[in-house]
Amino acid sequence: MPTTSRTVTKAPAPPAPTYEVEDELRAAGARVVAGMDEVGRGAWAGPLLVCAAVPGEGEPPSGLTDSKRLTPARRRDLAARLEPWVADHAFGWSAAVEIDEVGMTEALRRAARRALEGLSVRPDAVVLDGSHDFIGRPWRVRTQVKGDLTCIGVAAAAILAKVRRDAHMAELAEEHPGYAFERAAGYPSPVHRAHLEEHGPTPEHRMSWSYLDGLPRWSHLRTSRPGPGGQIPLL
Questions:
Q1: Which of helix, strand or coil describes residue 4?
Q2: Helix ranges, 89-146 (H)
Q3: Residue 205, beta-bridge partner list
Q4: So what's the pLDDT on residue 63?
Q5: d(CA 140, CA 133)
Q6: Is the peptide bond before 138 cis (omega within 30 degrees of 0)?
Q7: Which of 23, 56, 80, 199 has the most CB atoms lying inside 10 A of its own CB?
Q8: Which residues of the chain have a pLDDT value below 50?
Q9: Do the beta carbons of residue 181 and residue 173 sit within 8 Å?
């Protein structure tokens, strides 16, 4: 019987991020526009990290795209080239204990404002990935769904944030071995869950989260969540 070959067609690469949103805001009077993204929102352990990045002059380093589409090695390479290219960038952190105390909405707001306040020049406008403005007044915020895929400033912030938090979680893995922090960065994984079941949570774990309900030996450690308004659904 003759054999038939099947051609596998790769999906086309998504278009590279552009300055379209930044240009629109500049046309409306904004001189300095910062892109912003967060990482760590859905993790069981570790901090929430927000990055604010002001794009540099000209075209960004080649290969810029949604950080989730890149391998860890590629993200690290891009971050190393982005750091000298961006005009400015800063990080804002919210530790697990703060997330438990104030809820995710307020933790996001605090981390975002810490990042913005860490910039050397106050931006006139902020492009925020997603559809929810968790920063609030007096900042001028433009939300952008899939901003990390379409907007240069947001894409740069997303990659810088992901690489910085991953490095931090790898450091925590040395203090708390066995939870796969160096691989899964505090997010749910079979290895993470198995080690939790055996050894319980670390000081880096979020103790108000429902994953503890599935760990009978440790569920009594779960703390109450903040009241209404303190949490928003995970996106």
A1: coil
A2: 96-102, 104-118
A3: 45
A4: 87
A5: 10
A6: yes
A7: 56
A8: 229-235
A9: yes
Contact 157, 82 (CB under 8 A): no
DSSP 102: H
* Nearest-10 Cα torsion for 206, 160, 51, 34: -160
User: Per 3-state DSSP, what percentage of the chain is helix, strand, and coil (rounded to 5)?
Assistant: 40, 15, 45
Residues 6 or more apart from 94 whose CB is under 8 A from it?
47, 48, 107, 108, 110, 111
What span, in angstroms and rounded, lies between the C-alpha atoms of 182 and 168?
A: 9
Residue 66: what residue type?
D
Question: What is this structure's pTM?
Answer: 0.89
Tokens for 9? 């067609």
pLDDT at position 7 is: 54
Contact 44, 205 (CB under 8 A): yes
Express each pLDDT in 32-42 by its tens digit. 999 999 999 99
Specify the residue for token string 């997303």. 158
DSSP 65: -
The two tokens of residue 146 are 């899939």
